[in-house]
Amino acid sequence: MSIYIITPCTRIQYLQEISKTIPRECIWVIVYDSNYTDRILPYGDIILRPKNIRGSYGKPHINYALDALKLEDSDWIYVLDDDNIIHPDWYETISPLCNDGYNILSWGQLWNDDTIRLRPTEHMVFRAVDQASYMWRYGFNSVARFDEDYFGDGKFAEKLGQKSHRIDRYISYYNYLSPESMTEEEKEDFDAGVLEFLSKNDNNYAVNFNNNNLLTDQDATNLLRIEQLDYSTDNTTDLSHIKEIYLKSRKYRGGTACEVGSLGGQGTLSLCLAGLNVTSYDNDGQEGFKDKREFLCRDFNVNWIVQEGLYALNDEIKYDVVFHDSYHYDEVIPELVAFWYYKVKDKGMLIVHDVETFSHERFMFLIGNPIFERTKDAHGRELGTYYKN
Q1: Contacts of 137 (CB under 8 A, 6+ apart)
Q2: What is the distance, to the nearest Å, from the Cα of residue 56 to the centroid of all Cα atoms in its chain?
Q3: Nearest partner of 326 among 344, 314, 311, 345, judged by Cα
Q4: 337 with 344: CB under 8 angstroms?
Q5: Closest Cα partner for 170 from 96, 83, 111, 127?
Q6: What are phi and psi of 223, to 5 degrees?
Q7: Alpha carbon of 106 to those of 66, 177, 311: distances in Å?
């Protein structure tokens, strides 16, 4: 039995630093991108120099290694990106467990400042695990290969098709040597693809949620109640958008909703008033709001979960409506994509607040360019609604 660490490589400037963390007992395989095969550095136990393997976020490089190496069924595979390092406690933790008794091992992950990014989980679900937070025994699934796109690592985890043996320790990092999860070159590649895609698909028009959807007396009562809520706290979603969430959600009356980030509970109440059974995720990072929102929604049986919204991805429950109003900017895009594919039912909708803070074109590209609409409040904050047809 051998443990192989596979590193797809374009960022050769990090290899020296990575090499200092590789356990001597492991076999380090570096797969150079074809654009860099003339710049081989003296690191790695096995160096692979494919002729026509480029880009695609390292996934074809990993597949090349899996095809080229003479792997035994008992061997274990771990993928380490070229901007990451091995955690100092990783090898001594996993080595006793690398045997035929397990097929997949997984563990928690840290940011490079040692704060928690992903908690340990046995669920091999997209966005619940990262490429650096699991490894697998080759013979368990020797034919599985990575999809050659940015989210190929998360989708590969699901291809393995079973739960892992969870190690309740934090023994991996996320992009330890790089300040960003994507390089500027990768962002440019995304944007170029987005522009090309949108130029060929120009039928992406908004729908008017008020058309053919007349208000009832009960709607008028509910809207009046929404108008009387307190919106004075900074970062509270604007009244106009809370009303919009209510009006759009009415057609799912009797269904289910998942809210990510509830703060004072205005969005939660709008979903409840629309007749949905609501599950709300919030880590209660701002003191005092937990009691406030629970009191506001006291007339409804809300399933309050004091966790980050990411934990919703640990189960297979899907919802008619997902309202995401948690963290923002480009780093939220992978989480939004995961919610779109794994938490929104067919014919359901995803509502996202503050969509002006991230690359909307890139996000639309990744979720398949669905019908959507964006509205802006008086302060310039935007609400996006995406319909899963």
Answers
A1: 73, 74, 75, 76, 77, 98, 100, 102, 103, 104
A2: 18
A3: 311
A4: no
A5: 111
A6: -65, -35
A7: 20, 22, 16
Looking up tokens 């090309």 gives: 196
Q: Which residue has the tokens 């699934």?
A: 141
How far is Cα 383 from Cα 385, in angstroms, rounded to an integer? 7
Superfamily of domain 217-387: Vaccinia Virus protein VP39 (3.40.50.150)
Whole-Å CA distances, 330 to 43, 132, 174, 225, 354 = 33, 21, 16, 34, 11
Contact 72, 8 (CB under 8 A): no
| Contacts of 291 by beta carbon, 8 Å cutoff, 6+ apart | none
Task: Say which CATH superfamily domain 3-179 falls into.
Answer: Spore Coat Polysaccharide Biosynthesis Protein SpsA; Chain A (3.90.550.10)
Among 119, 172, 121, 162, which Cα is nearest to 141's?
162
Other C-beta atoms closer than 10 Å to the C-beta of 11 total: 17
> By CB neighbour count within 10 A (0-12 exposed, 13-18 middle, 19+ buried), where does 120 fall?
middle
Please report, in tens digits, the pLDDT of each residue of the chain (389 residues total): 999 999 999 888 899 999 999 999 999 999 999 887 677 888 999 999 988 888 767 899 999 999 999 999 999 999 999 999 999 999 999 999 998 789 999 999 998 888 888 888 888 876 678 899 999 999 999 999 998 877 777 788 888 878 899 999 999 998 898 755 444 454 344 344 434 433 343 333 233 333 334 567 788 788 888 988 888 887 889 999 999 999 999 999 999 999 998 888 999 999 999 999 999 998 765 566 888 888 899 999 999 998 888 888 888 899 999 999 987 888 899 899 999 999 999 999 999 999 999 999 999 999 999 999 999 888 899 999 999 98
Looking up tokens 């979960």 gives: 305
201, two tokens: 């698909």
- Report domain extents, the chain: 3-179, 217-387
Number of residues assigned to the chain: 389
CB 9 within 8 A of CB 36: yes
